[in-house]
Design goal:
The chain is of the alpha+beta class. The protein is 35% helix and 26% strand. It has five helices and five strands; from the N terminus they run ααββββααβα. Strand 1 and strand 2 form a beta hairpin. Helix 2 runs parallel beside helix 5. The longest helix has 16 residues. It starts with 25 loop residues before the first helix and ends with a helix. The N terminus is likely disordered.
Length: 151
């Protein structure tokens, strides 16, 4: 679990998308995440089909020396994605007021435990999921909906 969106680098993750001069696109991303493309597409298709007002932005961050993908609604971040070799990690940041919603959701207990145990950054804390299987994308979609319910 991580609570700073720009530091969602885990020590053992090899750096990808670290060339500042090459803005990522689907072709580049899919060549890196390979078979996890299906999970990426599942999340993005859900987003496009159900929330057409979401903005998508790639940005290079000097502090992490890599590109991150960010989705926003009316200027508020919904989630961040860091592309990894053979997969990707999606991260959501919630304020303390989301705690009850997360606890009452049908998210797996492991995600709820991660949220409970995560270090707080002021009143914000993160949930990060590395995509491995279809259930991970399903949980990301649940988190999108939780995030969008917050005012």
């Amino acid at each position: 679990m991580i609570c700073n969106p720009k530091s969602n680098i885990h020590p053992m993750e090899p750096m990808v998308l670290n060339d500042k001069s090459v803005m990522p696109n689907e072709e580049i991303v899919f060549s890196i995440i390979r078979d996890k493309r299906i999970l990426w597409q599942k999340i993005m298709n859900y987003l496009h089909d159900n929330h057409a007002d979401i903005t998508e932005v790639w940005r290079y961050y000097n502090d992490g020396k890599s590109w991150l993908f960010r989705t926003l609604k009316k200027g508020k971040t919904i989630f961040w994605i860091r592309v990894l070799e053979d997969t990707f990690r999606i991260a959501f940041y919630f304020s303390d007021k989301a705690e009850i919603m997360i606890e009452q959701s049908d998210l797996p207990e492991s995600i709820k435990n991660d949220f409970r145990d995560a270090k707080r950054f002021n009143t914000t804390c993160g949930i990060s999921i590395e995509m491995a299987e279809s259930a991970d994308a399903d949980n990301a979609i649940k988190l999108i909906e939780l995030k969008l319910q917050l005012k």
